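Sharing in case it's useful to others searching the archive later.

Someone asked me privately for the predicted structure of Protein translocase subunit SecD, so I'm posting the question and my answer publicly. Question first, with the sequence:
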Amino acid sequence: MLNKYPLWKTLMVVVIVALGALYATPNLYGESPAVQVSGLRGVEADAGTLDNIKAYLDENNLDFDSVVLENGQILARFTNTEDQLKARDILDDKLGNKFSVALNLTPNTPDWLAAIGGTPMKLGLDLSGGVSFLMEVNMQEAINKAKSAMVSDFRDDLRSEKIRYRSVKEANNGVVVIFRKVADLEAAETLLKKRYRDLLVKTNDDKLTLSAKMTEQKLKEIREYAIQQNITIIRNRVNELGVAEPLVQRQGKKHIVIELPGVQDTAKAKEILNATATIEFRLVDTEGDLANALKGRIPANSILLRDRDGRPSLLKKRVMLTGDHITDAKSGFDEYSRPQVNISLDSAGGAKMSNGTKSNIGKPMATVFIEYKPTGKRDAEGNIIFEKVQEIISIATIQSRLGKSFRITGSGSPAEAHNLALLLRAGALIAPITIVEERTVGPTLGAENVRLGFEAIMLGFGLVFIFMMVYYRAFGVVANLALGANLILIVGIMSLMPGATLTLPGMAGIVLTVGMAVDANVLIFERIREEIREGKTIQQAIHQGYDAAFSTIIDANVTTLIAAVILYAIGTGPVKGFAITLSIGIITSMFTSVIGTRAVVNAIWGGKRLDKLPI
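And my answer, the predicted structure tokens:
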């Protein structure tokens, strides 16, 4: 029988639309202003902190919806922004410098809906408000680190092949090795040219020197790796520290854009980004004279560093391992219930640690935490000059030959061990970065953008609704139902997708989708009218109308979808926001305007003897 859907197909349409409506529902509950309290420098909020916060709020007669402790952080919800701002000022003053007090927005999704994965759409910076930073990567420091690694690798290679040398030191974009004999020079040249094909290796027989210089291609690879790795690490750290849906992307040759939607506290956002440091493992110089070193007479192969309490130690200059090789880090306790950090390395790091510790069993090894602080000055090439600040966080004796897995003890408290594990797990920056520009979008401006964007969508929907009702009568009502279902599905899918963020251009994509969705129905309905004018029966006209228009609708939508996918692949920021809503809208509109409307038309008019069709 013509124009009769099987029951399963009708039920499929109903179930899909119902699921879309279910997961779009969290967007109706809105968000509450909140204050988030997080520990700094290894301190964690606990039940005692929770009780203190409640007491401070009660003392100042501030009404709050709830105050809860989750994952070492405390979240206090309020009914209005006035109480939120007062609470932030009070808690910031009362809690001191051990805690960070940040403004935030938290969704009011019911627990039963959250339990099945229902969450509201993530709003971009232009809609929710938040902070945006432009950060600059110090490329020269990335090259310097590469040269230091070359020095260490050259020494290891020459020693493993028992080739004697006088010294290995850094030079301009490369390394210079000085030998005592021509035979050693020639053996080293053969070895290094074979192992380092991306370096320009030259020798000078008269001076018994070998110079290895990085090619322009190698320098380009180092710069590209530095910025890509920094992007990955910053994204990991922001995610680890609990900022929802951050945007971290490259801009130009040495800049990174970071957008943190919903974060209203610039100081808190800066603290998150400034938690980007590196780590190194060095042997302690047990033979050096610490007293002389404190007087300024430091041995040539050693450096003098201090721990967080100011206690000095003499360490070897040679770095055994850097944090670049750490793949995982977890805090825990040793057999004496002392806090420790369990570290896992990649294969290259495991090999380096194994070679470095096999001949140093019983000797102390220091874990050095390094931060790069901008001085506000720039070098001749325009790069920001950084001050390198180094601090010993632990010194432990090497008990046995270490490999891909080992542990660090002496972190102090469990909270400090947890904080160290978090930073190590997120990774070490390849090159230091600094904030060169910051921008704050207030929540009030974001709310205004949401209101205006919503009004634009409703206006477009309303005008199309009226036109379809007037021009296509009952079939226009069916098309309007499909249009409403299309909007519901877009919102539901955007709410479900973990990486989808609604931006102001994204709202423009939804408005465009409204027009495209109804365009498919216009093609179908006009074809049905044409079939009726040619003398076809009502059922034949409906059948031919949908079948004949289907290929045209597919062609038009697929070509637009290809363009949207390309925009998403190569675009950034606002372009991506527009492309993602347009792509989702195209797919959902093809479902609702073709399959959805036909299910309704078949249910009402299909398989019946009709003399006239309300179209």
